[in-house]
Amino acid sequence: MRxxxxxxxxxxxxxxxxxxxxxxxxxxEYFNPSSMYTAAQSTAAAIRQARETIANCLNAGAPEQLLxxxxxxESNNSALFGTVQxxxxxxxxxxxxxxxPSVLEVCKELQRRGLEVDFLPVNRQGELEMRDYVKxxxxxxxxxxxxxxxxxxxxxxxxxxxxxxxxxxDPQIIFHTDATQAIGKLPVDLQGDLxxxxxxxxxxxxxxxxxxxxxxxxxxxxRWQPFILGGHQERGLRAGTENVPYIVGLxxxxxxxxxxxxxxxxRVRQLRDRLxxxxxxxxxxxxxxxxxxxxxxxxxxxxxxxxEGEAILFELSRxxxxxxxxxxxxxxxxxxxxxxxxMAVPFTAIHGSLRISLSRYNDEQxxxxxxxxxxxxxxxLRKLSPYWDDQRNCLKV
Amino acid sequence: xxxxxxxxxxxxxxxxxxxxxxxHMGELEAPDGFGEHGSIVCGDALRFAFRVKRHxxxxxxxxxxxxxxxxxxxxxxxxxxxxxCCVLEKQAKTxxxxxxxxxxxxxxxxxGLPDQKIHCSVMGAEALKAAVIxxxxxxxxxxxxxxPTQLERxxxxxxxxxxxxxxxxxxxxxxxxxxxxxVEAITNALKAGGGCGACRYAPGGLKDLLDECWGTISESExxxxxxxxxxxxxxxxxxxxxxxxxxxxxxxxxxxxxxxxELIDIKGQQVYCRLIGACATCPGSAQTFxxxxxxxxxxxxxxxxxxxxx
Lengths: 397, 310
Known about the structure:
The complex is a heterodimer of chains A (397) and B (310). Chain A has 397 residues and is α/β, with parallel strands linked by helices. Chain A has helices spanning 16-22, 41-57, 72-86, 101-112, 130-136, 159-169, 244-259, 261-282, 309-318, 338-342, 364-384, and strands at 4-5, 66-69, 92-96, 116-120, 141-145, 174-178, 199-203, 214-218, 286-288, 299-304, 321-322, 353-357, 388-389, 394-395.
């Protein structure tokens, strides 16, 4: 059975081009880039080159502003803790209720350490209300951290606008954004509309590089201090021997991702939109979470009333379709997704969420197959559900 | 995390979803016993019903002939519902015999359940019990000899887990019945503590109930997870909190009478304030200060807190 992989916001397949450029650094070019002998120059040069490539991809300016890390989670931890450590005179942090756990949990930890954190609410579409944001800004605000795009719903946040308001209020406020889901799907220009963003995180495995590599952009002059100590690598800003093959892979993946933004915005968006309208037609009591907000072109988060997400995933997997859900049974806790809860998705649908996230490797066939099987799966599960009226084909109240 | 379901769970789930013959999925019209457990808000719910062949003279000898269910929930919740009906047919003839079926019977029938899915089997056993109680009511059977003294399905009492509406009497009973020895086991079986988690180690929470039930040394995690006493507020935090209380509690009260309050400074435990507006010229302003403002602040912080008029 062919695997239909539509869980690209969770992780992605490694691009063959990426794997190819990584190969030599596993075999012949294994030298520690910090070593003195001539042979090691090739690995040191590979890292230098990778840094330049990524800086170009993001129009970041000086490549030294990019640090290689082990993951977006590490980048987010470093960004937040490193900023707080370097700015002990301020005590207030602003974030949103829908950030990735690697931001949210760090913010909760900061709270426990005595800082004040505002978790901005979102509306029914998953969008921020500017009024809430402006009201939250304070004289002692140290850090604002708001993601570019949400991993569950694909809803995008107006970071360019948010950072401008913060800096006009007080240029000392440090602005961090988690760009993990955005790179390759949205244009990211660190000298253009994002020129005032101080810190930006992302990882490789969401853009067809392997898991275990990420990057943190720290704009020159930002009051930030290193979080991982114990070595001179990355000019002392992130200790640890450089993961050469993965860094090389990340650079290649960034190149491909940035070159692919147009395809993502056209072909992938069309696939997603076609899938969305077909499912709207054949599944009653279906909502699309964040449908009226600015959304990533590849993400479709469905709220299917009256049934539970894990059962849907399980049925889909029988057809080789890999997707994900924000239902309690799949979240690792007994609580449904914090993002959908923050959006006040109705209780009849919050456990029936299904996220389909496409990539450039998906095609017409994949979408067709989902349209063939999903409506029937939903209908079968609804027959079992005490909350579904099968005769009238609607939700029982 | 990936699924770790037994073959039996998978088989029952698939048969139910595909509506294969012989499954018990569906509704019964005018059932003799009907019971529910869970809710859509919690993420799973089971609606269970059975029909009996009535004995002409002795209702305790009614024979269960048919059982059906509708389930909202995950793979294992659906399989557990199916298991409930199968076990019932195999082990019980009368509703009274059905009361002996426990969630462990369902787990055994299913060939095991992952720890975090134990609550699916509890849901089945609870819905069955509720249905038998319903049957007994309809048939005028006295269940007092067959059920624990409190037979109410949703025991009334203080809510311990607010996320999943789990009450203290229910928890007390279940901790013993299901032999739950850790907070995690409670969460896996009853869901309590699986939402915000606030009730796990709160006073009167899950840990306290466990200790009461089994004595104090019931789980090793307690040592690591005992919450540390909160640090005293820093001057900065104190200031922020005072401001917040003035803003939300004191100021609205004063403003009703055309007055207002201004916070000037905070040094250690001394709070410097100024009354303004109508209150400033009021002969009773000293009273206002002592009675209202200082009282409120002392309540919120400590008796040592001192209010100084400026």
